[in-house]
Design brief:
This protein is an alpha/beta fold. The chain has 3 domains: 167 residues, P-loop containing nucleotide triphosphate hydrolases (Rossmann fold), CATH 3.40.50; 90 residues, Rossmann fold (3-Layer(aba) Sandwich), CATH 3.40.50.11420; 115 residues, Rossmann fold, CATH 3.40.50.11410. The chain contains 13 helices and 14 strands. The strands form 3 sheets. A 6-stranded mixed sheet has the order 2-3-1-4-5-6, with helices on both faces. A hairpin with a 3-residue loop joins strand 2 and strand 3. It is globular and about 75 Å long. 40% of the residues are buried.
Amino acid sequence: MSDFNSTPRSNRLHIGIFGRRNAGKSTLINAICGHQTAVVSDVAGTTTDPVYKSMEIHGLGPCVLIDTAGFDDEGKLGRLRMEKTKDAAAKTDVAILLFDADIPPDDELEQEKQWLAVLRKQKTPVLAVISKSDTVADTAPLEESIYRRCKLKPVPISAAHAGTQSQMRELLLRLLPEGMDRRSIAGHLVNPGDIVLLVMPQNIQAPEGRLILPQVQTIRDLLDHLTVVMSVTADRLDEALSALKKPPALIITDSQVFSLVYQKKPKESRLTSFSVLMSGVKGDVHAFIEGAQAVDKLRSGSRVLIAEACTHVPLQEDIGRVQIPRLLKKRCGEGISIDMVSGTDFPKDLTPYDLIIHCGGCMFNRRYMMNRLAAAQAAGVPMTNYGVLLAKLNGILDKIVY
């Protein structure tokens, strides 16, 4: 195993490790990594905020190991840490639930059962592990207790054992969900040899000297599918189209210039946006398209939540903070109420909202985005995506591909 930093964290398999304080979570993560990533101490509660370790694990591919605070943490700070642990659970693709070998067999395991219920509700595969198995004479009574109370068959392990690393890898491989988050961004829309034109405005919102993550990921995906990729800024679109002997099979644009590109594109070329494509990779594009229809019902007094995955200093003409609110108020009236959240901030109570508009989610893994969508659906609130919404507001939602 070794670090492998070329794959964004959001595209990696997220493996969360959960258990009581001092159950051996940090020791286990260090054993899996093969070196000290997390601080290990006999003092309960050493791990506070979750520790995220990106690495390559043979057989599993690019992964993120998440070391969480003990779910029996106490006090005001303990409650805050639990919120962070819940957030980590929402991102977890595969969970390791740790049971300390010193737990008495007659323990009701109430806390473990509560967290197990959370993981099962979001359909997260769970591997039950009895840690520190080398410190007790017999783990059979605890194994029977765990199976009886949690309906899990635990595996005794000792992080001090030399074979723990390979043992955990084999156990996780068996648990890995089929088709785990290896979705293509645009492969379903192209054939080998197709010309694909990318329209990428390099304005104040573009990071200096580099491309934004969805653009980089899309270019790599298109190259993997043996297409001919051309890139152009919006102000050079006419020159790019004139230089081609035949129209591009597909045009992928920044959603902010959807209308402009639609007006100029050849009729033979199909059109989509980076954000629309991300909605299919990170979430459920069909649910987002359905959610966009809620715009037609918005009126003065309606309440909208705009959520961004990343946190950044607001820039001039920011798409989430300026452009989308301006378009919504132009369409629905100045009386519409718009709230903005970013990063991992997301209201627990979504019922006051009439619509949730989310960014493409390139900084989140699919599990996290789907959990947000599930929360919106449970609250009965429609949810859509930046690109899908902008296609709707520009009157071309039925004319794009996804």
